[in-house]
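Instructor's aside before we start: the two examples that follow are unrelated to each other. I chose them only because their records fit on one page, so don't look for a connection. First example below.
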Amino acid sequence: MLINKRIGAIEVDTAFADHEQAYELLELVCNDVKEVMDEYDLQVSQIIEMTDDTLDLGYNENETLGWIKIRVRRTRNNQAFQSESMVMDTLLHELAHNRYLGHGEDFNEFFSELKLSLEGRTNSCRISLPHPMVELERGKQH
């Protein structure tokens, strides 16, 4: 199902009884970020719920496969969901990789620009600056 003209589809792990909640969380952040994606001409064919055993919060394969994986559940217990702001920050981080593959200065500047653009459009409680994982170093993103 087409989410919007910038995001083709959302896929969640239906093995979880609460998979509809995971879908709703991803749909919410995808809809919130749509205008930012329009502004910066960013696209992705699929946003996929990440449920593997890694500590990664997200992974971007948009260059070759056209998808971004986002962890919406807490890594260690998969029963509790990440906060909306964490999922949003992770999505913005992964979208920044559509333009810059590494984590260099250009990437960091663009990631900050995306967050500031979103902050001007949505309820400010939905995102946090700087990215929580930069401060806490509890996980990593690609």
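Example two begins here.
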Amino acid sequence: MNYHWETVDSVNDGMYIGFMIFMTVENLLSLTILHPSKEIRNDGSRRTNMFGSVMIGQIMDFSFKSRRTRGLAGISVVAVLGTRIWVGGLFNQRGYNYHDIRNMTLKLIDFKNSGGDLAGPFVLYSSYGLLDAIFHCKTRS
């Protein structure tokens, strides 16, 4: 709807309605997801989790002397990674200025021809997904 616009004055109502429909369908589809522990392939093996889940799983499965040490190690990894990722988000956000938005001088990024301008925000967005996987895996252990 707003793809390849040279100037973006505002988002039209159709964009908001489209997002609301998309989120409603997404929420309904999430009710049909099978719990990962119940997913078994045809050859009998279990499914491979995301990198973040595997990483925190390896830390939590590592042989520590006590349960307390294992718990502290897991929460430390979550705290350190979480802090680093959120600080990265803060530095990325500091590049935006209210006056640039108000004066419409903000540099817009198109994912097809942005080159290196998209690399930082893409890594940051992926890191948020990594942190989410680690956090959810840690809260279930």
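Residues 49-140 form one domain.
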